[in-house]
Amino acid sequence: MPASSPVVVVVAALCCALLLCVDASVHDYTGERFAALGNAFVLNGGSEGVYASPAADSFIRFEKVAFKRTPESAAAAEEDGNRTATITAVVSEAADRDAVGGSDVTATGVRALCCTPDMASRGACTEGSLVHRAPNGTASSDSWPKVLSASFVPGALEAVFPDETVAVSRTGMYSLRFVHCDASLDVAAEGKTIWKNSRGYGYLPGRMAPLLAFYGVMSLAFAALAAFWFLRYTRFWREVTPLQNLVTVVIALGMVEVTTWYLDLAEFSESGVRPAGTTFWAATAGAVRRTVSRVLVLLVAMGYGVVRSTFPGGGGAGARVAALGAAFFAASEALEVGDHVGAVSDHDQSRTRRLFLVLTVAALDAAFICWIFAALSRTISRLKARRMAAKVEMYRRLATSLTIGVAVSLGWITFEVHFKSTDGYHSERWRVAWVIPAVWQLISFALLCAICLVWAPSHDSTRFACSDECGDDDGEDGERPVMIRAGPLSYVDNWACYVTQDAKIILRTDSGVYAKAGDEDKRV
Questions:
Q1: Count of domains in the chain?
Q2: Which stretch is the leader sequence (predicted)?
Q3: By residue range, what is the domain housing residue 348?
Q4: Which of 167, 210, 360, 388 could form a disulfide with 434 if both were Cys (CB 3.0 to 4.6 A apart)?
Q5: Taking residues 302-313, what's their average pLDDT?
Q6: What are phi and psi of 236, to 5 degrees?
Q7: What is the dihedral of CA 406, 408, 414, 416, to 10 degrees?
Q8: pLDDT tens digits for 29-76?
Q9: Read out DSSP for 477-506?
Q10: Residue among 201, 147, 205 at smallest CA distance from 348
Q11: Which of 151, 167, 196 is a domain's end point?
Protein backbone atom coordinates (compact mmCIF):
# COMPACT_ATOMS: atom_id res chain seq x y z
CA MET A 1 0.00 0.00 0.00
CA PRO A 2 1.38 3.47 -0.86
CA ALA A 3 2.66 5.59 1.98
CA SER A 4 -0.03 8.20 1.42
CA SER A 5 -2.88 5.69 1.85
CA PRO A 6 -3.21 6.10 5.66
CA VAL A 7 -3.53 9.86 5.21
CA VAL A 8 -6.27 9.41 2.62
CA VAL A 9 -8.11 6.96 4.88
CA VAL A 10 -7.97 9.39 7.83
CA VAL A 11 -9.27 12.28 5.70
CA ALA A 12 -12.09 10.12 4.32
CA ALA A 13 -13.11 9.05 7.83
CA LEU A 14 -13.09 12.66 9.04
CA CYS A 15 -15.21 13.79 6.10
CA CYS A 16 -17.77 11.02 6.66
CA ALA A 17 -17.99 11.88 10.36
CA LEU A 18 -18.57 15.56 9.63
CA LEU A 19 -21.29 14.70 7.12
CA LEU A 20 -23.25 13.20 10.00
CA CYS A 21 -23.01 16.42 12.05
CA VAL A 22 -25.12 18.71 9.88
CA ASP A 23 -26.23 21.96 11.47
CA ALA A 24 -28.04 24.88 9.94
CA SER A 25 -29.70 28.20 10.65
CA VAL A 26 -32.11 25.77 12.24
CA HIS A 27 -30.03 24.98 15.33
CA ASP A 28 -30.83 21.49 16.62
CA TYR A 29 -30.06 20.45 20.19
CA THR A 30 -29.59 16.73 20.66
CA GLY A 31 -28.14 15.99 24.07
CA GLU A 32 -25.73 18.91 24.39
CA ARG A 33 -24.58 19.59 27.95
CA PHE A 34 -23.52 22.65 29.92
CA ALA A 35 -19.94 23.75 30.56
CA ALA A 36 -18.72 25.70 33.60
CA LEU A 37 -18.03 29.39 33.02
CA GLY A 38 -17.08 31.35 36.12
CA ASN A 39 -19.74 30.64 38.74
CA ALA A 40 -22.35 29.61 36.12
CA PHE A 41 -22.95 26.74 33.71
CA VAL A 42 -23.47 27.74 30.08
CA LEU A 43 -24.61 26.08 26.86
CA ASN A 44 -24.13 28.08 23.64
CA GLY A 45 -27.31 27.87 21.59
CA GLY A 46 -26.03 29.75 18.54
CA SER A 47 -24.47 32.99 17.34
CA GLU A 48 -25.41 34.73 14.10
CA GLY A 49 -25.58 38.11 12.48
CA VAL A 50 -29.18 39.11 11.82
CA TYR A 51 -30.40 41.84 9.48
CA ALA A 52 -33.55 43.62 10.68
CA SER A 53 -36.12 45.29 8.45
CA PRO A 54 -39.23 47.48 8.85
CA ALA A 55 -41.35 44.46 7.92
CA ALA A 56 -40.24 42.80 11.18
CA ASP A 57 -39.66 39.45 9.46
CA SER A 58 -36.38 38.72 11.29
CA PHE A 59 -36.73 36.50 14.31
CA ILE A 60 -35.32 33.80 16.60
CA ARG A 61 -37.94 31.14 17.28
CA PHE A 62 -37.92 28.50 20.03
CA GLU A 63 -39.49 25.19 19.01
CA LYS A 64 -39.88 22.34 21.49
CA VAL A 65 -36.80 23.39 23.45
CA ALA A 66 -36.60 21.27 26.60
CA PHE A 67 -34.01 20.17 29.14
CA LYS A 68 -33.94 16.76 30.78
CA ARG A 69 -32.19 16.19 34.08
CA THR A 70 -30.95 12.91 35.47
CA PRO A 71 -32.80 11.11 38.30
CA GLU A 72 -29.80 11.77 40.51
CA SER A 73 -30.21 15.53 39.99
CA ALA A 74 -33.91 15.29 40.82
CA ALA A 75 -33.13 13.30 43.99
CA ALA A 76 -30.54 15.89 45.06
CA ALA A 77 -33.14 18.65 44.64
CA GLU A 78 -35.65 16.72 46.80
CA GLU A 79 -33.07 16.24 49.54
CA ASP A 80 -32.54 20.00 49.48
CA GLY A 81 -36.22 20.65 50.23
CA ASN A 82 -37.59 20.36 46.69
CA ARG A 83 -35.45 23.25 45.59
CA THR A 84 -36.56 24.64 42.22
CA ALA A 85 -33.92 24.50 39.49
CA THR A 86 -34.25 27.01 36.68
CA ILE A 87 -32.75 27.15 33.18
CA THR A 88 -32.53 30.66 31.72
CA ALA A 89 -32.26 31.45 28.01
CA VAL A 90 -30.57 34.77 27.23
CA VAL A 91 -30.75 36.29 23.75
CA SER A 92 -28.39 39.25 23.54
CA GLU A 93 -26.88 41.48 20.91
CA ALA A 94 -23.14 42.17 20.86
CA ALA A 95 -23.62 45.77 21.95
CA ASP A 96 -25.56 44.59 25.03
CA ARG A 97 -23.00 42.11 26.24
CA ASP A 98 -22.53 43.96 29.53
CA ALA A 99 -26.22 43.60 30.31
CA VAL A 100 -25.62 39.99 31.40
CA GLY A 101 -23.62 39.31 34.57
CA GLY A 102 -22.74 41.28 37.65
CA SER A 103 -19.90 43.52 38.66
CA ASP A 104 -18.17 40.85 40.78
CA VAL A 105 -15.34 38.80 39.33
CA THR A 106 -14.83 35.10 40.11
CA ALA A 107 -11.58 33.50 41.21
CA THR A 108 -10.90 32.54 37.59
CA GLY A 109 -11.06 36.17 36.47
CA VAL A 110 -14.45 35.81 34.74
CA ARG A 111 -17.42 38.07 35.43
CA ALA A 112 -19.94 36.43 37.72
CA LEU A 113 -23.06 35.52 35.75
CA CYS A 114 -24.88 34.20 38.83
CA CYS A 115 -25.74 36.31 41.85
CA THR A 116 -23.14 35.95 44.62
CA PRO A 117 -23.81 36.33 48.38
CA ASP A 118 -22.10 39.74 48.34
CA MET A 119 -24.29 40.94 45.50
CA ALA A 120 -27.41 39.58 47.23
CA SER A 121 -26.47 41.34 50.48
CA ARG A 122 -26.41 44.62 48.57
CA GLY A 123 -29.89 43.91 47.28
CA ALA A 124 -28.74 43.78 43.68
CA CYS A 125 -30.18 40.33 42.93
CA THR A 126 -31.41 37.04 44.35
CA GLU A 127 -28.65 34.66 45.33
CA GLY A 128 -28.27 31.74 42.91
CA SER A 129 -30.13 33.43 40.04
CA LEU A 130 -28.81 34.78 36.75
CA VAL A 131 -27.89 38.46 36.85
CA HIS A 132 -29.25 40.49 33.96
CA ARG A 133 -30.46 44.01 33.51
CA ALA A 134 -31.79 46.22 30.76
CA PRO A 135 -29.02 48.18 29.01
CA ASN A 136 -28.56 51.85 29.88
CA GLY A 137 -30.88 51.37 32.86
CA THR A 138 -34.02 51.24 30.66
CA ALA A 139 -36.85 48.85 31.27
CA SER A 140 -38.85 49.17 28.07
CA SER A 141 -40.39 46.14 26.42
CA ASP A 142 -37.96 46.52 23.53
CA SER A 143 -34.86 46.41 25.72
CA TRP A 144 -32.22 43.72 25.45
CA PRO A 145 -31.26 41.10 26.43
CA LYS A 146 -34.38 38.99 26.03
CA VAL A 147 -34.72 36.47 28.85
CA LEU A 148 -36.83 33.29 28.89
CA SER A 149 -36.85 30.67 31.62
CA ALA A 150 -38.04 27.14 32.35
CA SER A 151 -38.08 25.49 35.78
CA PHE A 152 -38.08 21.91 37.02
CA VAL A 153 -41.08 21.35 39.25
CA PRO A 154 -40.42 19.05 42.23
CA GLY A 155 -40.00 15.46 41.06
CA ALA A 156 -40.10 16.32 37.32
CA LEU A 157 -37.26 15.28 35.02
CA GLU A 158 -38.04 17.77 32.25
CA ALA A 159 -38.30 21.55 31.98
CA VAL A 160 -39.90 22.87 28.78
CA PHE A 161 -39.52 26.33 27.25
CA PRO A 162 -42.63 27.85 25.68
CA ASP A 163 -42.67 27.96 21.87
CA GLU A 164 -41.94 31.64 21.53
CA THR A 165 -40.69 33.92 18.78
CA VAL A 166 -38.25 36.71 19.62
CA ALA A 167 -38.60 39.45 17.02
CA VAL A 168 -35.34 41.14 15.99
CA SER A 169 -35.94 44.84 15.51
CA ARG A 170 -32.37 46.01 14.99
CA THR A 171 -29.49 44.66 12.93
CA GLY A 172 -26.68 43.10 14.92
CA MET A 173 -24.74 40.03 15.99
CA TYR A 174 -26.99 37.99 18.29
CA SER A 175 -26.12 35.09 20.54
CA LEU A 176 -28.24 32.66 22.51
CA ARG A 177 -26.97 31.19 25.77
CA PHE A 178 -28.70 28.80 28.14
CA VAL A 179 -27.52 29.35 31.72
CA HIS A 180 -28.13 27.78 35.13
CA CYS A 181 -26.49 28.34 38.51
CA ASP A 182 -26.97 24.92 40.17
CA ALA A 183 -23.77 22.90 40.47
CA SER A 184 -25.72 19.69 41.23
CA LEU A 185 -27.89 19.98 38.10
CA ASP A 186 -26.98 17.56 35.29
CA VAL A 187 -29.12 18.28 32.22
CA ALA A 188 -29.12 17.75 28.45
CA ALA A 189 -30.77 19.92 25.80
CA GLU A 190 -33.36 18.93 23.18
CA GLY A 191 -35.34 20.80 20.53
CA LYS A 192 -34.31 23.54 18.12
CA THR A 193 -34.22 27.27 17.49
CA ILE A 194 -34.82 28.86 14.09
CA TRP A 195 -32.95 32.00 13.07
CA LYS A 196 -34.26 33.99 10.10
CA ASN A 197 -32.86 37.01 8.32
CA SER A 198 -34.62 39.64 6.26
CA ARG A 199 -33.64 41.59 3.14
CA GLY A 200 -34.10 38.56 0.92
CA TYR A 201 -31.39 36.54 2.69
CA GLY A 202 -33.83 33.97 4.04
CA TYR A 203 -32.27 31.64 6.58
CA LEU A 204 -28.66 32.47 5.69
CA PRO A 205 -26.61 33.72 8.65
CA GLY A 206 -25.83 37.40 8.29
CA ARG A 207 -22.07 36.98 7.87
CA MET A 208 -22.64 34.47 5.03
CA ALA A 209 -25.56 36.20 3.29
CA PRO A 210 -23.54 38.43 0.87
CA LEU A 211 -21.62 35.37 -0.33
CA LEU A 212 -24.70 34.18 -2.22
CA ALA A 213 -24.49 37.12 -4.64
CA PHE A 214 -20.68 36.93 -4.69
CA TYR A 215 -20.59 33.29 -5.81
CA GLY A 216 -23.25 34.09 -8.40
CA VAL A 217 -20.95 36.74 -9.88
CA MET A 218 -17.94 34.40 -9.65
CA SER A 219 -19.88 31.72 -11.54
CA LEU A 220 -20.42 34.22 -14.37
CA ALA A 221 -16.75 35.25 -14.27
CA PHE A 222 -15.59 31.63 -14.55
CA ALA A 223 -18.08 31.08 -17.36
CA ALA A 224 -16.57 34.03 -19.26
CA LEU A 225 -13.03 32.73 -18.68
CA ALA A 226 -14.07 29.24 -19.76
CA ALA A 227 -15.68 30.66 -22.93
CA PHE A 228 -12.48 32.55 -23.79
CA TRP A 229 -10.35 29.47 -23.18
CA PHE A 230 -12.73 27.15 -25.06
CA LEU A 231 -12.75 29.38 -28.15
CA ARG A 232 -8.95 29.52 -28.22
CA TYR A 233 -8.74 25.81 -27.50
CA THR A 234 -11.06 24.79 -30.36
CA ARG A 235 -9.49 27.24 -32.80
CA PHE A 236 -5.93 26.06 -32.22
CA TRP A 237 -6.58 22.50 -31.08
CA ARG A 238 -3.77 21.12 -33.24
CA GLU A 239 -1.24 23.24 -31.34
CA VAL A 240 -2.55 22.50 -27.82
CA THR A 241 0.16 21.31 -25.42
CA PRO A 242 -0.16 19.04 -22.33
CA LEU A 243 0.26 22.08 -20.06
CA GLN A 244 -2.74 23.75 -21.66
CA ASN A 245 -4.77 20.62 -21.01
CA LEU A 246 -3.91 20.94 -17.31
CA VAL A 247 -5.02 24.58 -17.35
CA THR A 248 -8.34 23.41 -18.81
CA VAL A 249 -8.76 21.04 -15.86
CA VAL A 250 -8.10 23.87 -13.37
CA ILE A 251 -10.70 26.11 -15.06
CA ALA A 252 -13.26 23.29 -14.97
CA LEU A 253 -12.60 22.65 -11.27
CA GLY A 254 -12.96 26.36 -10.51
CA MET A 255 -16.32 26.48 -12.29
CA VAL A 256 -17.54 23.44 -10.37
CA GLU A 257 -16.38 24.93 -7.06
CA VAL A 258 -18.01 28.37 -7.30
CA THR A 259 -21.21 27.00 -8.85
CA THR A 260 -21.55 24.39 -6.12
CA TRP A 261 -21.00 27.03 -3.42
CA TYR A 262 -23.74 29.12 -4.98
CA LEU A 263 -26.16 26.17 -5.03
CA ASP A 264 -25.21 25.32 -1.44
CA LEU A 265 -25.99 28.83 -0.16
CA ALA A 266 -29.14 29.14 -2.26
CA GLU A 267 -30.59 25.94 -0.80
CA PHE A 268 -29.49 26.99 2.70
CA SER A 269 -31.27 30.34 2.29
CA GLU A 270 -34.45 28.67 1.08
CA SER A 271 -34.80 25.78 3.53
CA GLY A 272 -32.82 26.83 6.60
CA VAL A 273 -30.95 23.52 6.56
CA ARG A 274 -27.51 23.42 5.01
CA PRO A 275 -27.24 20.55 2.46
CA ALA A 276 -24.38 18.38 3.66
CA GLY A 277 -23.76 16.70 0.31
CA THR A 278 -23.58 19.94 -1.68
CA THR A 279 -21.35 21.57 0.93
CA PHE A 280 -19.03 18.57 0.99
CA TRP A 281 -18.56 18.50 -2.78
CA ALA A 282 -18.03 22.26 -2.93
CA ALA A 283 -15.31 22.00 -0.27
CA THR A 284 -13.75 19.00 -2.03
CA ALA A 285 -13.75 20.74 -5.43
CA GLY A 286 -11.99 23.70 -3.83
CA ALA A 287 -9.34 21.48 -2.23
CA VAL A 288 -8.73 19.62 -5.51
CA ARG A 289 -8.52 22.88 -7.48
CA ARG A 290 -5.99 24.41 -5.10
CA THR A 291 -3.88 21.25 -5.16
CA VAL A 292 -3.90 20.88 -8.95
CA SER A 293 -3.16 24.60 -9.39
CA ARG A 294 -0.10 24.44 -7.16
CA VAL A 295 1.21 21.26 -8.76
CA LEU A 296 0.65 22.74 -12.23
CA VAL A 297 2.59 25.92 -11.43
CA LEU A 298 5.38 23.85 -9.87
CA LEU A 299 5.66 21.65 -12.98
CA VAL A 300 5.79 24.72 -15.20
CA ALA A 301 8.45 26.28 -12.97
CA MET A 302 10.49 23.08 -13.23
CA GLY A 303 10.35 23.37 -17.02
CA TYR A 304 7.99 20.50 -17.79
CA GLY A 305 6.67 20.84 -21.35
CA VAL A 306 8.89 23.84 -22.06
CA VAL A 307 12.46 22.85 -21.23
CA ARG A 308 11.85 19.16 -20.52
CA SER A 309 9.79 16.82 -22.68
CA THR A 310 9.16 14.38 -19.83
CA PHE A 311 8.07 14.71 -16.22
CA PRO A 312 10.96 16.08 -14.10
CA GLY A 313 11.66 12.91 -12.21
CA GLY A 314 15.38 13.17 -11.79
CA GLY A 315 16.60 12.72 -8.23
CA GLY A 316 13.16 11.62 -7.08
CA ALA A 317 11.58 14.99 -7.93
CA GLY A 318 8.44 13.31 -9.24
CA ALA A 319 7.89 11.45 -5.99
CA ARG A 320 8.47 14.63 -3.97
CA VAL A 321 5.96 16.58 -6.07
CA ALA A 322 3.37 13.81 -5.63
CA ALA A 323 3.99 13.59 -1.87
CA LEU A 324 3.72 17.35 -1.38
CA GLY A 325 0.55 17.48 -3.47
CA ALA A 326 -1.05 14.60 -1.55
CA ALA A 327 -0.19 16.15 1.81
CA PHE A 328 -1.57 19.53 0.76
CA PHE A 329 -4.80 17.99 -0.49
CA ALA A 330 -5.30 15.99 2.71
CA ALA A 331 -4.78 19.03 4.96
CA SER A 332 -6.80 21.38 2.75
CA GLU A 333 -9.69 18.92 2.47
CA ALA A 334 -9.84 18.40 6.23
CA LEU A 335 -9.77 22.17 6.82
CA GLU A 336 -12.44 22.99 4.23
CA VAL A 337 -14.81 20.20 5.28
CA GLY A 338 -14.38 21.07 8.94
CA ASP A 339 -14.99 24.77 8.29
CA HIS A 340 -18.08 24.41 6.13
CA VAL A 341 -19.85 21.07 6.45
CA GLY A 342 -22.25 21.42 9.36
CA ALA A 343 -20.82 24.75 10.55
CA VAL A 344 -22.97 27.86 10.84
CA SER A 345 -21.98 29.84 13.93
CA ASP A 346 -18.45 30.17 15.26
CA HIS A 347 -19.28 27.97 18.25
CA ASP A 348 -19.64 25.04 15.84
CA GLN A 349 -15.88 24.97 15.19
CA SER A 350 -13.08 23.63 17.36
CA ARG A 351 -10.48 26.37 17.52
CA THR A 352 -7.66 23.99 18.42
CA ARG A 353 -8.40 21.66 15.51
CA ARG A 354 -8.78 24.54 13.09
CA LEU A 355 -5.56 26.23 14.24
CA PHE A 356 -3.64 22.99 13.69
CA LEU A 357 -5.04 22.55 10.17
CA VAL A 358 -4.50 26.22 9.26
CA LEU A 359 -0.85 26.05 10.32
CA THR A 360 -0.38 22.77 8.43
CA VAL A 361 -1.85 24.19 5.22
CA ALA A 362 0.23 27.37 5.61
CA ALA A 363 3.44 25.35 6.03
CA LEU A 364 2.69 23.24 2.94
CA ASP A 365 1.81 26.39 0.98
CA ALA A 366 5.14 27.91 1.99
CA ALA A 367 6.91 24.76 0.79
CA PHE A 368 5.18 25.07 -2.59
CA ILE A 369 6.10 28.75 -2.90
CA CYS A 370 9.78 28.24 -2.04
CA TRP A 371 10.07 25.29 -4.42
CA ILE A 372 8.30 27.15 -7.24
CA PHE A 373 10.54 30.21 -7.08
CA ALA A 374 13.70 28.13 -6.76
CA ALA A 375 12.68 26.09 -9.81
CA LEU A 376 11.78 29.26 -11.73
CA SER A 377 15.22 30.70 -11.07
CA ARG A 378 16.95 27.55 -12.36
CA THR A 379 14.73 27.32 -15.43
CA ILE A 380 15.20 30.97 -16.39
CA SER A 381 18.98 30.61 -16.00
CA ARG A 382 18.96 27.55 -18.26
CA LEU A 383 16.88 29.34 -20.90
CA LYS A 384 19.21 32.35 -20.80
CA ALA A 385 22.19 30.06 -21.32
CA ARG A 386 20.48 28.62 -24.40
CA ARG A 387 19.59 32.13 -25.64
CA MET A 388 15.85 31.36 -25.86
CA ALA A 389 14.62 34.91 -25.52
CA ALA A 390 10.92 34.19 -26.15
CA LYS A 391 10.73 31.54 -23.44
CA VAL A 392 12.72 33.69 -21.02
CA GLU A 393 10.22 36.51 -21.48
CA MET A 394 7.31 34.12 -20.94
CA TYR A 395 8.81 32.83 -17.69
CA ARG A 396 9.56 36.36 -16.52
CA ARG A 397 5.90 37.30 -16.96
CA LEU A 398 4.91 34.21 -15.00
CA ALA A 399 7.39 35.05 -12.23
CA THR A 400 6.06 38.62 -12.05
CA SER A 401 2.47 37.41 -11.78
CA LEU A 402 3.38 34.94 -9.03
CA THR A 403 5.39 37.55 -7.13
CA ILE A 404 2.45 39.96 -7.15
CA GLY A 405 0.10 37.15 -6.09
CA VAL A 406 2.32 36.11 -3.19
CA ALA A 407 2.75 39.72 -2.04
CA VAL A 408 -1.00 40.34 -2.10
CA SER A 409 -1.62 37.04 -0.29
CA LEU A 410 0.84 37.91 2.47
CA GLY A 411 -0.79 41.30 2.90
CA TRP A 412 -4.25 39.74 3.06
CA ILE A 413 -3.12 37.11 5.56
CA THR A 414 -1.87 39.90 7.81
CA PHE A 415 -5.21 41.68 7.57
CA GLU A 416 -7.15 38.46 8.22
CA VAL A 417 -5.13 37.66 11.34
CA HIS A 418 -5.70 41.19 12.65
CA PHE A 419 -9.40 41.05 11.79
CA LYS A 420 -10.05 37.77 13.58
CA SER A 421 -7.75 38.40 16.53
CA THR A 422 -9.66 41.59 17.32
CA ASP A 423 -12.95 39.73 17.64
CA GLY A 424 -14.16 40.45 14.14
CA TYR A 425 -17.06 37.98 14.15
CA HIS A 426 -18.53 39.17 17.45
CA SER A 427 -18.67 42.91 16.84
CA GLU A 428 -20.29 45.09 14.23
CA ARG A 429 -17.63 43.98 11.73
CA TRP A 430 -19.49 40.72 11.15
CA ARG A 431 -21.16 42.49 8.22
CA VAL A 432 -17.87 42.60 6.31
CA ALA A 433 -16.61 39.18 7.40
CA TRP A 434 -17.66 37.71 4.05
CA VAL A 435 -14.92 39.77 2.38
CA ILE A 436 -12.23 37.47 3.87
CA PRO A 437 -13.08 34.33 1.81
CA ALA A 438 -14.19 36.48 -1.13
CA VAL A 439 -10.77 38.11 -1.56
CA TRP A 440 -9.04 34.71 -1.44
CA GLN A 441 -11.28 33.62 -4.30
CA LEU A 442 -10.44 36.79 -6.24
CA ILE A 443 -6.68 36.35 -5.75
CA SER A 444 -6.88 32.77 -6.99
CA PHE A 445 -9.04 33.78 -9.96
CA ALA A 446 -6.67 36.63 -10.89
CA LEU A 447 -3.66 34.28 -10.91
CA LEU A 448 -5.59 31.80 -13.05
CA CYS A 449 -6.45 34.58 -15.50
CA ALA A 450 -2.78 35.60 -15.68
CA ILE A 451 -1.75 32.02 -16.46
CA CYS A 452 -4.49 31.76 -19.09
CA LEU A 453 -3.22 34.92 -20.80
CA VAL A 454 0.39 33.71 -20.79
CA TRP A 455 -0.44 30.16 -21.96
CA ALA A 456 -3.52 30.77 -24.12
CA PRO A 457 -3.64 28.39 -27.13
CA SER A 458 -2.45 30.13 -30.30
CA HIS A 459 -0.96 29.37 -33.71
CA ASP A 460 2.54 29.39 -32.18
CA SER A 461 1.76 27.46 -28.97
CA THR A 462 4.21 24.75 -29.99
CA ARG A 463 6.91 27.41 -30.20
CA PHE A 464 6.92 27.42 -26.40
CA ALA A 465 6.53 23.66 -26.11
CA CYS A 466 9.39 21.25 -25.80
CA SER A 467 10.39 19.41 -28.97
CA ASP A 468 11.71 15.88 -29.21
CA GLU A 469 15.23 17.21 -28.74
CA CYS A 470 14.54 18.62 -25.27
CA GLY A 471 16.99 17.59 -22.64
CA ASP A 472 20.48 18.62 -21.74
CA ASP A 473 21.41 19.44 -25.33
CA ASP A 474 21.78 23.03 -26.35
CA GLY A 475 19.47 22.85 -29.39
CA GLU A 476 15.74 23.37 -28.92
CA ASP A 477 12.84 24.53 -31.09
CA GLY A 478 15.07 25.98 -33.76
CA GLU A 479 16.38 28.67 -31.41
CA ARG A 480 19.92 27.31 -31.45
CA PRO A 481 22.32 30.02 -32.61
CA VAL A 482 23.61 29.12 -36.10
CA MET A 483 27.22 29.63 -37.05
CA ILE A 484 27.72 29.97 -40.83
CA ARG A 485 30.84 28.15 -41.98
CA ALA A 486 32.73 29.65 -44.90
CA GLY A 487 34.82 26.53 -45.40
CA PRO A 488 37.64 24.49 -43.87
CA LEU A 489 41.05 26.07 -43.73
CA SER A 490 42.89 23.07 -42.37
CA TYR A 491 42.42 19.95 -40.36
CA VAL A 492 44.44 17.39 -38.51
CA ASP A 493 43.49 13.88 -37.43
CA ASN A 494 41.39 14.76 -34.35
CA TRP A 495 40.41 18.37 -34.78
CA ALA A 496 39.26 20.88 -37.34
CA CYS A 497 39.28 24.65 -37.43
CA TYR A 498 36.61 26.82 -39.11
CA VAL A 499 36.26 30.54 -39.58
CA THR A 500 32.74 31.95 -39.90
CA GLN A 501 31.78 34.92 -42.02
CA ASP A 502 31.60 37.12 -38.92
CA ALA A 503 35.23 36.25 -38.10
CA LYS A 504 34.46 33.82 -35.32
CA ILE A 505 36.71 30.79 -34.91
CA ILE A 506 35.17 27.41 -34.20
CA LEU A 507 37.27 24.46 -33.05
CA ARG A 508 35.90 20.94 -33.46
CA THR A 509 37.66 18.21 -31.50
CA ASP A 510 36.31 15.27 -33.51
CA SER A 511 38.01 13.97 -36.59
CA GLY A 512 36.43 13.47 -40.00
CA VAL A 513 36.14 14.72 -43.52
CA TYR A 514 33.77 17.63 -44.18
CA ALA A 515 32.06 18.92 -47.29
CA LYS A 516 33.51 21.92 -49.02
CA ALA A 517 32.04 25.40 -48.79
CA GLY A 518 28.57 25.64 -50.35
CA ASP A 519 27.61 22.05 -49.52
CA GLU A 520 25.50 20.99 -46.54
CA ASP A 521 27.04 21.28 -43.11
CA LYS A 522 27.51 17.56 -42.50
CA ARG A 523 30.05 14.83 -42.49
CA VAL A 524 30.63 12.81 -45.67
A1: 3
A2: 1-24
A3: 209-463
A4: 210
A5: 66
A6: -120, 40
A7: -110
A8: 888 889 888 888 999 888 888 888 776 678 899 999 999 988 888 888
A9: TT-SPPPPEEEEEEE-SS-EEEEETTS-EE
A10: 205
A11: 196
